[in-house]
Amino acid sequence: MKHDVEAKPVGPDPKSDSECKPRDRDAVLRSMDRCTKCGTCQAYCPVAGVTEAFPGPKYSGPQAQRFRVIEPIQESAPALCSGCGVCSSVCPNDVAISDIITIARAEMIAGDGKLPLGQRLLNRPDLVGRIGAIAPAIANAVLDSRLFRGLAEKLIGIHGDAALPRLEGPTFRRWFQGRRQSDGKPVAYFTGCAVEHYDPQVGIAAVRVLNHLGYRVTLPSEACCSLPMLSSGEWGAARRRAEALVEDLTEDTAAGHAIVSTSTSCSLTLREKYAAYLSLTGDRARRTAAAVVDVCEFLRGEPAQALEASLKPLRKRVLYHGPCQLRGHRSGQPALELLRMIPGLAVVPSEAHCCGVAGTYGYDRGKHDIAMAVGRTLFDQIAAAEPDLVACDSETCRWHIERATGYPVRHPIELLAASIFEADPRHRNNEG
């Protein structure tokens, strides 16, 4: 059943500081009491809009939770939720609907211990990246093989057409180690596993732009934020990793440094999900949550005037898609605002709620078709707009959109770097 609802811009209006404080797990679950069953979340849910197998967020979230607090119930609906967070972003009563469903899914998995091998591998992109870095060319050839894809789908449940990223090896770290930086205001860059192993050009662009604006960049950690583990219910391992990452960031948070991220999923995880799922709300975790900021949100602030003065014409047509995780930042669409500063750049905003992949959701053999159906609105808009390229802040969204449409997809920071340094964003250049 398809819901014909007018598209709502990605990201609600920014909220007050008090509203943006991360909620722990108990607070997330208590938010069900504010649900009035208005049905707004049902109307906007991308998954419920394309399949009747998922009853929707109202029924899977707060309504079912009222029974879960009484006794355990047998259910399959939480497993079909993509966790995109659209429901929470449109809820007029600030019910943490998506988080309630994620917690229910994690408790189901903890109860039966049945987490597929394919999901366990997807939960460890840093490990896969380190292994692949031994021989990236060979690893990529294997991952591109139809034989391997077919076996992976049959044996471990990763769909044969899933948008597996290309392994790059330690490209970014090698580049950064040779980078000469002038003294400037320090800013910590949390690269996450995507930049470290799969998308080095995003990190290179981010460092170049920050250096150009007078910042000295440090790399406090190359750990994975563990969002795949949190989303799929592997919370024991996620807790250990989260605590270690918060410790890695302590020196910067204690010094009051901003911690920028080029992944909206990573930044949202540190800002809210450690508290929501693991109840990590100690002093260090709270300082981390307060310090982490999306790179475009950061650039929209104090550096914005200097950034705008540095931008040169970039005569391209770009469709910008704000990823689902961006809604949780409650910061509007900072990347869209920055892209509109670039002279000559024609920017077409996405009209879609979600690209469908939702982290690792679209990789699952049983959910890939749902992910593709969810993304159809975006894919059709891209085909109609005929842009030179697409821009998106989330790595899994970029990989998914590029594979589904054939259009090159770049992080907005790459377009800003291209404008400043006069490089074509379709051709990734390591220079500078």
Question: Overview of this structure, please?
Answer:
- The protein is of the alpha/beta class.
- Among the domains are: 17-112, Alpha-helical ferredoxin (Fumarate Reductase Iron-sulfur Protein, Chain B, domain 2), CATH 1.10.1060.10; 308-421, Rossmann fold.
- The protein is built from 27 helices and eight strands.
- It has a four-stranded parallel β-sheet, with helices on both faces. A four-stranded parallel β-sheet has the order 6-5-7-8.
- Strand 7 (389-392), helix 26 and strand 8 (409-410) form a beta-alpha-beta unit.
- Helix 14 (200-212) crosses helix 27 and helix 18 runs antiparallel to helix 19 (283-291).
- The chain is globular, with a radius of gyration of 21 Å.
- It starts with 16 loop residues before the first helix and ends in an 11-residue tail after the last helix.
- The model is unreliable at 1-20 (pLDDT under 50).
